[in-house]
TrEMBL record:
Residues 46-69 have a biased composition (Polar residues). The keyword rRNA processing does not apply. It is an enzyme of class 3 (hydrolase). Residues 44-82 are annotated as: Disordered. It catalyses: an N-acylsphing-4-enine + H2O = sphing-4-enine + a fatty acid. Its EC number is 3.5.1.23. This is Neutral ceramidase. Keywords: Hydrolase, Lipid metabolism, Membrane, Metal-binding, Sphingolipid metabolism, Transmembrane, Transmembrane helix, Zinc. Zn(2+) binds at residues 186, 295, 533, 572. The keyword Zinc applies. InterPro entries: Ceramidase_alk, NCDase_C_sf, NEUT/ALK_ceramidase_C, NEUT/ALK_ceramidase_N.
């Protein structure tokens, strides 16, 4: 590699970067030292304790652990275990319950989680985020499993531990670490701030207890709804290919895999969608779960509106179709989850990478352009803009799911089972063959991690495919973060280490060591809960290995799905061969080149235990920590103010008197910080679009803030001043008539020497007419 040279401007900018980084680290450390449990939980008034959550159904923990501090989840008010309802037992099938609940969190003054782009903060709402829960139990109620798909970037370890603790408080040993899977859809447009490991806390710019509580409450509520709604039913499975919705964003890495292996597959992405259809014994619809490998990054890193991206749009379409007469987000009975799978190297931006300055292709091993380098190489979706692309890709998934759902006829039958272990992923011995072994590594991120991907490039001049470090950046790393040990560098080869996170423990460990591995089975159907992002070939290898293990112990013809972003986040998992190329996904494989082999070995153990009915003999493994003192958000809570002579909700820019179908209605109000609404949930929506019904002389709500036709923008001013802009993109299906838009908000009042008060307010636009033609 040619030695990099720097201009005077670049050198000055790097100097500023180093100074800013040093100041940031110092501030974060200071914040950690001066903040405690009371500060972290002051918004909710919650306390914490050192006790561990109950995890019934498991054997005793192993004697040796690498992390001695046990979980310390939030104390909840003493609640007696909910009595189990009497279940009708004389039928063939499963007891099935479905539930959906809001888990949006705050939609302002918080980073969006996924792109790690500085300044990509939430500034409004496109769609609400939901937790979708599915509870399945055997007819006699003896065994049950829970699968939850959540519209968030990924499930954090802290989130899972707190959810399990609250379930245990309410249901006793019914819902446990082994039979509950929490999976994130991986939208990159959901709030951050719910993590405990330092890398993610820094990326979130602090831990937000406000958003954490909102998410935990929503996830638990969705499970509670599913629990209450359980009824006898049947499950059917179907499979089919979704064509034209994805590309491999690291095709040169994929080509590193053996030719003979690649020859077994027709594509460098997994096109197959696997779908479960859930109905009651009368054949009435209950819900669906589908798995399909695609990154929810149709909304790019210029977006500031919280939303569920393409997979969320697919759920929206299916639920709107099945829940006739319900507004989106209301408790319509049907629940449709489009869950994540082995999406690590899969992009929905199907036009592929092009140099945005010249238009030429940059589909090369370094994703770099001749002029401008990697920062110019960006992949685009099929639409006119990111909103359009999101809907196009989402509709493709919806249409295939609709087709598979209608023709699903193969019933899923058989007992339910679950197996789970906690594993120290930094110290797994991997047997490559009968005589040779290797080990996983302490975590580290490589140079190409900082390069980003064609879906969202990094902000610095790093390049994908970097296998040799740069002395300049190495010096900066060593001075600020510490020099990686020779052992760490040797373990991660050929990865040049940029962030030696496994050696960094202040204020808390920067990456997890203790990781969940988990499988649940429904008869001949198995869900593997993956704590990260598997690439296409990684997923194929794991599926094959788990299928072979089941078959070897008397369970042939198992259908195995990869469920991604489950239980704890550990970045990416590439194959050993892909790791050698060190593109973004490989540089983000934090436990080293043998990570995939370790997971395959661990999941084989779980599959064997289920097949041989020896799950009770599995060691539970070392418990993960639950840290108390976390870095508080860097953005302070300040009082909201209205302009002199104005009140919150006053109209600043009115609507026009008449609009045509296809136009955009826009109204601007005196606003207040919408993060207040994550604390005081007096209103369940920021907006409504209402139509006047002359026959009843009433206003009927036709849209809310969960509708894809509405957009809520928050514009932050100085000293607590702000505006709220509400848009309604009038759809072709809109009926002519008289409409109005309403705004619902909450303002923060902070008087001297008095406690903070959050007050609700609402406002209404003037009426306007919608006509079909101009």
């Amino acid at each position: 590699m040619a030695k990099r040279t720097f201009s005077m401007l670049e050198a000055f900018l790097v100097f500023l970067l180093v100074m800013m980084t040093g100041i940031t680290v110092a501030l974060l450390t200071l914040l950690f030292i001066t903040s405690g449990t009371v500060e972290n939980h002051k918004d909710s008034g919650l306390l914490t304790t050192q006790s561990s959550p109950a995890t019934e159904g498991s054997t005793a923990p192993q004697g040796s652990t690498t992390l001695a501090q046990g979980p310390t989840p939030t104390l909840v008010s003493p609640t007696p275990s909910t009595p189990e309802p009497t279940l009708f037992q004389n039928f063939s099938g499963y007891h099935i319950g479905v539930g959906r609940a809001d888990c949006t969190g705050q939609v302002a003054d918080i980073n969006l989680m996924g792109y790690s782009k500085t300044g990509q903060t939430a500034q409004g709402l496109l769609t609400r985020l939901y937790s979708r829960a599915f509870v399945m139990a055997e007819p006699d109620g003896s065994n049950r499993v829970v699968f939850v798909s959540i519209d968030i970037g990924m499930v954090s370890q802290r989130l899972r531990l707190e959810v399990l603790n609250r379930l245990q408080s309410k249901y006793g040993s019914l819902y446990r670490r082994d039979n509950v899977i929490l999976s994130g859809t991986h939208t990159h447009s959901a709030p951050a701030g719910y993590f405990q490991y330092t890398v993610f806390v820094i990326a979130s710019e602090g831990f937000s207890n406000r958003t954490f509580e909102y998410m935990v409450t929503g996830i638990v509520k969705s499970i509670e709804i599913a629990h209450r709604n359980m009824k006898p039913g049947k499950i059917f499975i179907n499979k089919g290919n979704v064509d034209g919705a994805q590309i491999n964003r690291s095709p040169s890495s994929y080509l590193q895999n053996p030719v003979s292996e690649r020859a077994r597959y027709s594509s460098n992405t997994d096109k197959e969608m696997v779908l479960l259809k859930l109905v009651d014994l009368n054949g009435d619809d209950l819900g669906l779960i589908s798995w399909f490998a695609i990154h929810p990054v149709s909304m790019n890193n210029s977006n500031h509106l919280v939303n569920s991206d393409n997979v969320g749009y697919a759920s929206y379409l299916f639920e709107q179709e099945k829940n006739k007469g319900y507004l989106p987000g209301e408790q319509g009975p049907y629940v449709a989850a489009f869950a994540s799978s082995n999406l690590g190297d899969v992009s929905p931006n199907i036009l592929g990478p092009h140099c945005i300055n010249t238009g030429e292709s940059c589909d090369n091993a370094n994703s770099s352009c001749p002029v401008g380098g990697p920062s110019m190489c960006i992949a685009m979706g099929p639409g006119e803009d990111m909103f359009d692309s999101t809907q196009i890709i989402g509709r493709m998934m919806y249409q295939k799911a609709k087709e598979l759902y209608a023709s699903a006829s193969q019933e899923v039958t058989g007992p339910l089972a679950a197996a789970h272990q906690w594993v120290n992923m930094t110290d797994v011995t991997v047997w490559l063959n009968s005589t040779h072994a290797a080990k996983t590594c302490k975590p580290a991120l490589g140079y190409s991690f900082a390069a980003g991907t064609i879906d969202g490039v990094g902000s610095l001049n790093f390049t994908q495919g970097t296998t040799v470090g740069d002395p300049f950046w190495d010096i900066i790393r060593d001075q600020i973060l510490g020099k990686p040990s020779e052992e760490l560098k040797e373990c991660h080869k050929p990865k040049p280490i940029l962030l030696p996170t496994g050696m960094m423990s202040k204020p808390h460990p920067w990456h997890p060591e203790i990781v969940d591995v988990q499988i649940i089975t429904l008869g001949s159907f198995a869900i593997t809960a993956i704590p990260g992002e598997f690439t296409t070939m990684s997923g194929r290898r794991l599926r094959q290995a788990v299928q072979e293990e089941f078959a070897a112990y008397g369970m042939p013809n198992m259908t195995v799905v990869i469920s991604g972003l489950c239980n704890v986040y550990t970045h990416y998992i590439t194959t050993y061969e892909e790791y050698q190329a060190q593109r973004y996904e490989a540089a983000s494989t934090i436990y080293g080149p043998h990570t995939l082999s370790a997971y395959i070995q661990l999941f084989r153990v779980l599959a064997k235990a289920i097949a041989t009915d020896t799950v009770a003999n599995l060691s539970r493994g070392p418990e993960p920590p639950f840290f108390q003192q976390l870095i508080t958000p860097l953005i302070p809570n300040i009082a909201d103010r209205a302009p002199i002579g104005k009140n919150f909700g006053d109209v600043l820019q009115p609507v026009k008197s008449t609009y045509t179908v296809g136009e955009v209605v826009e109204v601007i109000f005196v606003g207040a910080n919408p993060k207040n609404s994550a604390e005081n949930q007096t209103h369940q929506t920021f907006l409504t679009v209402e139509k006047y019904e002359a026959t009843s002389a009433t206003w009927q709500i036709v849209h809310n803030d969960a509708s894809w036709e509405t957009r809520f923008y928050w514009h932050k001013g100085l000293l607590g001043l702000s505006n709220a802009t509400i848009q309604w993109h009038i759809p072709d299906t809109a009926q002519p008539g008289i409409y109005r838009i309403r705004y619902f908000g909450h303002s923060r009042k902070q008087d001297l020497l008095k406690p903070t008060v959050i007050l609700s307010f609402e406002s209404t636009s003037s009426a306007f007419e919608v006509v079909t033609t101009s």
